[in-house]
TrEMBL record:
The lineage of its organism: Bacteria, Pseudomonadati, Pseudomonadota, Gammaproteobacteria, Oceanospirillales. InterPro entries: GntR_C (IPR011711), TF_FadR/GntR_C (IPR008920), Tscrpt_reg_HTH_GntR (IPR000524), WH-like_DNA-bd_sf (IPR036388), WH_DNA-bd_sf (IPR036390). GO terms for molecular function: DNA binding; DNA-binding transcription factor activity. This is DNA-binding GntR family transcriptional regulator. Keywords: DNA-binding, Transcription, Transcription regulation.
C-alpha cells in the first residue's frame, strides 16, 4: 500500500536560500545591517535559524546584486555607497528609463500608463503629507518600476531589476533629505502629464533632470556632513 505524506512538505534548499536572501536584503535596506558592517556567516545563520549553507548561497546572490562586497583576507561587508557608485547607478537608470519611455511613447501606450502612474503619485502625496518617508521611497521605486515594465521588454525589465537593490540603498540615503525635495511630487506629476501627452522631446528632458536631482541632493548632503565633521574635529582639538 502506498504511504501518504501527511506532514508539511520539506523545505527545498533553493527556497530556504531565497528566504534567507530576502531576510538579509531587508536587514541591509532597513539599516539593521548598516553600511560597512562585516557579515559573520555563523552569526547570520543563527539569527535566521538555518544552517550555514543557505546563508552562504544568500551571500553569493547579494554579492551579485551589489549589496555586499567581498574583500580578500578580510571578509564580506555591506556596501558603503560612494559618490562614484551613486553616479554610476543613476547613469544606468537614466539609460534604461529613457529607453523605456521612448518605446512607450512610440507605441501609443502613454495615456494608459499615465492613469496607473497617477494612482502611485496620489499615494505618494498622502505619504509626504504624513511624513512617511520610507513609504515615499517605496512608492518612488514603484513608480519607476511600473514605467520600465510597461515598455514591454523582458530584457529591459531584467536589467532594471538588477538595479533595484542598489537603488534601495540610494533612496535610503534620500530619506533623510526628502524634506528638502519640495519638487518631488511636482516632478512625478510632470512626468505623468508628459507621458499622457506623448511629448517625447519634453519627456526625455524632464526625465533626465528628474534623475539628476537625487544625485545632486545626496552629494550635497554628503558634502555638508563632511564639512560638519571637519569643523567638529577642529573644535575638539
Amino acid at each position: 500500500m502506498m504511504k501518504l505524506h501527511v506532514g508539511p512538505k520539506p523545505v527545498l534548499r533553493s527556497t530556504m536560500s531565497s528566504m534567507v536572501t530576502e531576510q538579509i536584503r531587508d536587514a541591509i535596506l532597513s539599516g539593521v545591517y548598516p553600511p560597512g558592517m562585516q557579515l559573520n556567516e555563523k552569526l547570520v545563520a543563527e539569527s535566521c535559524g538555518v544552517s550555514r549553507g543557505p546563508v552562504r548561497e544568500a551571500i553569493q546572490r547579494l554579492l551579485q546584486e551589489g549589496l555586499l562586497t567581498s574583500e580578500p583576507h578580510r571578509g564580506v561587508f555591506v556596501l558603503e555607497l560612494t559618490e562614484h557608485d551613486l553616479e554610476d547607478i543613476y547613469f544606468t537608470r537614466d539609460a534604461v528609463e529613457r529607453a523605456a519611455l521612448r518605446r512607450i511613447v512610440h507605441s501609443g501606450r502613454g495615456e494608459e500608463l499615465s492613469v496607473r502612474l497617477m494612482a502611485v503619485v496620489e499615494s505618494m502625496s498622502q505619504a509626504i503629507e504624513q511624513e512617511k518617508w520610507t513609504e515615499v521611497a517605496a512608492l518612488d521605486i514603484r513608480f519607476h518600476s511600473e514605467l520600465v515594465n510597461s515598455a514591454g521588454s523582458q530584457r529591459l525589465s531584467r536589467l532594471y531589476a538588477t538595479l533595484m537593490a542598489e537603488m534601495g540603498l540610494c533612496l535610503n540615503k534620500l530619506i533623510g533629505v526628502y524634506r528638502g525635495r519640495g519638487r518631488l511630487l511636482e516632478e512625478h506629476k510632470l512626468l505623468v502629464n508628459l507621458i499622457a501627452s506623448g511629448d517625447a522631446e519634453q519627456l526625455d528632458k524632464a526625465m533626465a533632470e528628474h534623475l539628476q536631482e537625487p544625485v545632486d541632493t545626496i552629494c550635497k548632503a554628503w558634502e555638508k556632513s563632511r564639512q560638519t565633521a571637519a569643523q567638529s574635529a577642529v573644535t575638539d582639538k
